[in-house]
Design brief:
This protein is an all-beta fold and 78 residues long. It is 0% helix and 55% strand. The protein has one domain.
Length: 78
């Protein structure tokens, strides 16, 4: 099971924390670069038996929204 808390600040900055019952804590921060593009960084830290063998993992993700509509008279020239 995951227990999460997330916040969106001024529709630009995403932040959050998650606790997984399988002994893991995750911190996350993201930035909405444009209406179509978001960049996110997260860090997973084990808190259970594996914490002595693993010091955590880093993840960077890019999210691109292909369904975004551009308000223009001709989509060829935007």
């Amino acid at each position: 099971m995951d227990i999460s808390a997330n916040a969106l600040i001024q529709n630009r900055v995403w932040t959050g924390i998650t606790y997984r019952t399988n002994s893991e804590i995750i911190g996350m921060a993201g930035w909405q670069v444009s209406p179509q593009l978001r960049v996110t960084y997260s860090f997973d830290y084990p808190t259970g038996d594996l914490s002595s063998l693993n010091s955590g993992s880093h993840e960077i993700s890019l999210q691109f929204d292909f369904g975004y509509k551009i308000n223009t008279a001709n989509p060829r020239f935007f």
